[in-house]
């Protein structure tokens, strides 16, 4: 018989228990077993450590045993705590006979940087329900790159190579990371593409006569395509990238200097050199430096993994944060020069990619 999936509603994603009656394994019962069903676990806390925002870590197994004198029936679980949507449990526990054992498989999918925590209470027939605490920490970071292709990394960003020291026909103007954060693309002002790590080539505007130079790029959610943007806001889509609009043909106070895509790939932001923001598709406006006096012009931007914020970077490496974007440091005041863009390291969160405010069963 096919196991029945029981979804437990979380804040953004639903965890679930896959109940399969009769799968518990019998084990010797203590002589002083409590009357009725009594469920105990091999631990009351699982610590996942650090994980990149948007990644899925696990499973970590927790063994449950019925130490009581009567059969126990597991019917579900409730998730509470600060971050219930950052954890998922899968299990084949259903009917657990006296002395029987079964396993909970726990997963961590951090939805934001910093400490994450949730408490799981198993719903069964025992007088004292089993409670499990889940905790972990989300990490993220970003790169800055200059016109010569030299990179600076912050937070958990790792370098995979660059064209620094190589003669370039045109200067580097922007970069974008792959969805798993294990590679990136650099783009030159003629639309030439340089791929590093696990980044693949899907096309370029190199060799095409452009009305205005390329100034930025962004990748799709699955990493199978990317957008290039010109200084007039014209958009060039490659691979599976879709077109959602542009400022091409619009009179701009300042030129477009960069772009970033939303986590689900359903939209993008364009940013001008004064920090003005133009949102297309499902991209939301979270603020800008438009109207603010800047020491150096804005040269690029990057979106947070959940799409609820973004960073802007200036030519001197100064960072401006909006929405839920945290500050990790900058090259501003560190002698940096000719910074031309930035990109975050963390992939989009599962919560943001699925775009679900209610329950979503994940049964494995």
Quick structural summary:
With 364 residues, this protein is mostly beta strands. The chain has one helix and 27 strands. It starts with a strand and ends in a 10-residue tail after the last helix.
Q: In words, what does this structure look like?
A:
This protein has 364 residues and is mainly beta. It has one helix at residues 350-354; strands spanning 4-8, 15-19, 39-41, 45-52, 57-66, 72-73, 76-80, 87-91, 95-96, 101-108, 114-123, 131-139, 141-146, 151-155, 172-177, 183-188, 193-197, 214-219, 225-230, 235-239, 256-261, 267-272, 277-281, 298-303, 309-314, 319-323, 339-344. A 4-stranded antiparallel sheet has the order 3-5-10-8, with no helix packed on it. A 4-stranded mixed sheet has the order 4-12-11-7, with no helix packed on it. The longest helix is centred in the last third of the chain and has 5 residues, at 350-354. It is elongated, with a radius of gyration of 25 Å. The model is unreliable at 1-29 and 355-364 (pLDDT under 50).
